[in-house]
Structure formats: C-alpha cells, structure tokens
User: What shape does this take?
Amino acid sequence: MTMSDTGSKVERKAGCNPCTNLAIAVILAWSAIIGASALWNIHLVRQSSFQLAHAEAICSLDKDMVYRRWVARHGGVYVPITGDTPPSPYLLHVRERDITTPSGRALTLLNPAYMTRQVHEMGNRQYGIRAHITSLKPLRPENVPDQWELKSLRAFAGKGAVEFSEVLTVDGSPHLRMMRPLVTEKACLACHERQGYKVGDLRGGLSVSVSMVPYMAIAQSNLHGMVFGHSFLWILGLIGIGFMWSANKKRYVEKTRAEEALKESEQRFADVVNFLPDATFAVDEDRKVIVWNRAIEEVTGILAKDMLGRGDYEYMIPFYGERRKHLLDLMWDRDPELEARYPYIRREGDSIISEVFCQT
Assistant: This one.
C-alpha cells in the first residue's frame, strides 16, 4: 500500500469518526438548550402581556374603589342636572335627592353607584376600558351580573377570593376581565340597609375589561427580538462547534495516520520475522504476543493463530511448562535475580543481547 492510498483511507474513515459523532451530539445538545431557552422566554414574553393588562386592570379597579369610598364617606355628591346626568329614579327615597342653589342652579345627588357608572362610561369612551358594577340585589336592571360575573361572585362567596380574572374574547378580540368584590361598609348602609345588608356582607362586585391587543403587540415585538437573539446565539454556537470539530478532526486524522503507519510497520516486521529461519516471537508493551513465526510453530507445535494476542506469560509454557518471567521482562523491569539466570547477557543502550538455550 502506498502512502497516498493510506492517506485516502484515513480521510474516508475521518468522515465517520468519534469527532464527528461528538460534534453531532454537541450540536443536538446546544440546539436543545437554545430551544428550551427560547420556549421559556416565549412563555415569559406572552405572560408579560397578561401581567401588563393585569396591572392596568388593578389600577382601574383601585381608582374606582377610591372614588366610591370618597363619595360614600360624604353621603354622595351633588352635580348639575343635565341630559347625561338626570336625577336617579332609584334615589326617590332620599328626601334631598334634588336641590336648588340660591343662584337657581338645579342639582341632583349622585350616590357611589351612580358616580361609578358615569366614570365607567367616560372611561370607555376615552380609553376603551370597559367596566361594570354589579349587585346581588340590583336596583337597576343593567346591574344584573352576567354569567362570568356570577362565576366571579361565587368564587368570592364560596372560596373567599379577593380577585377573579380570566382572558376572554370580547367583541372578537382578547380581553382581560377582572372583578373584585364589593363588601358592605358602614358608609354603604345609607343606601343599602333597606335591602337587608349588614357591614361585611358581600353586596356585588366591580369588574373591568382591558383589551390585550396593545400589550400583545408589545409582546410580539419583544418576541421578534428574543427569537433573533436566540438565533444569533445558536449560530455563534454552531460556529464554535465547527471550529472544535475541525481541530478534533485534524488530530483524529493525524492519530489515525500514525496508527496506520504503526500497523504497517508492525506488519512489515511480522512479515520479515515470519520468514526467519530461527524460532522467533515478539510481544508488545502489554506483553502480549504480536509475532509468532513459522519456525517457532515447528519448534513448539503451536500455530500462530492460537498464540497471537496471548499474554500473562502463556508464551513461556511451551518452553518451561509453566508461566514465568523471561528475558523479555528485563526490557521493562530491572530484576537482578532474573538477570542472573542468563550467563551470556549484555546491555547495549536500550537493547539486551543474550543467548538462551532451551531443550524441547
């Protein structure tokens, strides 16, 4: 086999070597890590749209509750009577529902529920935030709870929940609906004691519906940036893995060529030794038989195929009838007692030269 043939053989083997398998495994592991990170971040980005809408809903409900408490604390507020704010027919039992100022202005009383409804209508017109006040015993038919609000009220009454929220489709687009309970306070009794409520009773709830569309648009923009960043990081990892594979492949090819050259050298050595007229065998660094020539086959009656690869001093059995150390062992271990067994022995550099006579 020529050297060029050997090089081609090595290159063909390199196409399916442990370095390639390792590179594939690292690529799969790296892709799995980037994929898992991307999925987790996609979840966080999508969750962020809910969290932003949730924060807006909380702010809206907190504002409504503050306004209601302030109005209830003052027993209601008087505002001018207009087409948008007519006297409430549900406050006829209030003796001073409508008053006239000394200057002749006609005013009507707004209780917390009436004020809240007007604030909700303005918020819907200006900001698109829908809100609703509902009651277990509504005075206005419009305050009757819908199915989702009934589910929320059951959660408040049965589980003691202080908040209930879900993402639902409203008018064809996703909205976050959130509701908080309305619990009867002392200031509420002026209007609701006649309905049988006591302080601490669940009276109804305030709900708000916040569009998810603008927050989902923000999340989508963040999602694009996150996907780009992960893709860029994944490609950088692949480039690094490519450099690693190239370096490892080069080392593997060099190692394989060296091993091929060593095998060829050993084979040539074995071919030469095999045709020597003298009985000859050789062992490797692990002290296993690598050469057992034809002459020694004739002397021992043991074929090479039965001895090649044998170790543990088995090659001494044909000569001494037992496993024992031999002159070869002096190549690895200095042993004065063993060396004394051979009267004709001398060392020349890394070589040991001796004459041994064995009767077979």
User: Anything to note?
Assistant: The longest strand covers residues 173-183. Residues 1-16 have pLDDT under 50 and may be disordered.
